[in-house]
Amino acid sequence: MLSIRAKLTLWYLLVTFAGAVLFGVTSYGVLFYALISEKKTHLLGRENRLMHLLEINSQQHVRVPLYNQLRSYALATHEGQLFQIREPDGTLLYPATSTNEDWALRDRMNCQRRSFIRFSIATIPTLVMCHTVVVDGTYVNLYIGGSLEQEYDILRIYRNALMFLLPGLLLLSSYCGFLLSRRAMSPVDRMTKAALGIGIGNLAERLPVPSTKDEVQQLAEAWNQLLARLESAVRRLSQFSADISHDLRTSITVMLATAQLALSQSRSEVEYREDLNRIASECRSATTLLDALLSIVRSNNFVHEMSLQRLDLAELGLQGCRRVEDLAEAKNILLDWELPPHQVMIEGDEVLIHRLLGILLENAIKYTPEHGEVHLRVDIVENEAQLIVCDTGIGISPDAKAQIFERFYQADMRERTTPVGSGLGLSIARWIVDAHRARISVKSEHSSGTSFIIHFSLVTDAQSVSQYEQVGIPQ
After folding, report:
1. For the chain, how long is the longest CA-to-CA vector?
2. φ, ψ for residue 345 (rounded to 5)?
3. Fewer Cβ within 10 Å of end Cβ, the chain: N or C?
């Protein structure tokens, strides 16, 4: 495969060669036309001088015979041997005899209108003009010829000069094309060398951006923007991987130590139950962490097939609260819910809605200090089903509020006494909300609690529910 530099050089050479050939053919044709036109003008001038001479002699009543006048003109004129006068039937009037008697008749020239023809006379290229004129009161055909040897010599010299200069021009164009392509591709070469030196360990490096204000500069800037996004993603993933490793290692260490201690000595039933509860708690934490990680990994290239059905949002809210009652009680948090006496029907996937409720309620309990409160409310507001989960926890700062739904994002933990999370829960919650074509918003003030509000579309009895729907997980 040829390199771009070689291709550019070949294209430059091809364009130059085509241009040179086109210039040579065109200029040769123009020069040929100019020389022939000049020769025609010369022949026309000879005719005019002859007719002028005969007219003057007639006005002055010169008594010299016409034949002698024509002979004097032929002797005084260059190329006088290529001069004949014939009657319309072809009878030769001048000269009396001719060694090339047929040269003016071979092509049966039409002399009624002035015409020109090129042919060879005794191997000499010649241009002959034929014209019907009046001489001594009689219509005759006047033939005047002129040699084209000089003109053909000029064309031959010009053609040879073009053929001689063409190879040199091609060599020069090849060299210039190589230099131009090398100069044009030098920014790309620098970018390629810089790109080869960038790896996972030095993503902070950037490609050199030439100040050329062209496509190469745009390409370099686009690649640098891509590297910046990649660096940011890798940095956050590295931090997330470190957190995941630490959390999993801690859970496994606690479970292993608890099990080994329980096996090393005899214990009472109450102590065994406490050990098993501790192991179960660590298992739940590790499972939640792994589920969150799996959801994010799958969401990068997975299309979820939701099983849509009519669901009672109030019933789902009650089930979600029952699920985390023990977790709230363990932290001495008051978990309360407020549900309408009637059904609040929505269209959704039951598994995903349960997961959404679990994320919001677990987050509320996690970031609410002891003796705090977590409240869930389901209601109908402006023809929409509204689910609200609020707490009296530490709240979210204004700077963090705009980023809490991003993957792996974790707000500043300096004022928190709760364990650091994975930063995945709310990004999954946002995906579930988007998959149901719902809306989620957050209201929070620092140290004053947080409220998550989700708006679902109501489903009436007249509306039909799709059984399945392909939903692409947003990137």
Report:
1. 164
2. -90, 130
3. N
For 193, residues 6+ apart whose C-beta sits below 8 A from its C-beta are none
| Residue owning tokens 């059984």 | 467
260: left (phi over 0), alpha (psi -120 to 50) or beta: alpha
What letter represents residue 392's amino acid?
Answer: T
> Which uninterrupted H or E stretch holds 121?
strand 115-121
Residue pair 412/392 in contact (Cβ under 8 Å)? The answer is no
Reading the block at residue 317, the tokens are 């809210």
Q: CA-CA distance, 133 to 140, in Å (whole number)?
A: 6
- How many C-alpha atoms does 233 have within 13 Å on its Cβ side? 8
Q: Residues for the chain: how many in total?
A: 475
Written as one string, the DSSP assignment of 302-319 is -EEEEE-EEEEHHHHHHH
Taking only the tens place, the pLDDT of each residue in 235-288 is: 777 766 665 665 677 667 767 877 887 788 787 888 888 778 878 877 876 776
pLDDT tens readout for residues 419-475: 444 456 787 788 889 989 999 999 987 777 899 999 999 987 655 444 555 454 443
Whether the link from the prior residue into 125 is cis, omega within 30° of 0, is: no
**Closest by Cα among 316, 315, 252 to 289:** 252
Q: Which residues contact 395 (CB under 8 A, 6 or more apart)?
A: 444, 445, 446, 447, 448, 449, 450
Burial of 114 (0-12, 13-18, 19+ CB in 10 A): middle
Helix axes 269-299, 215-264, angle to 10 degrees: 170
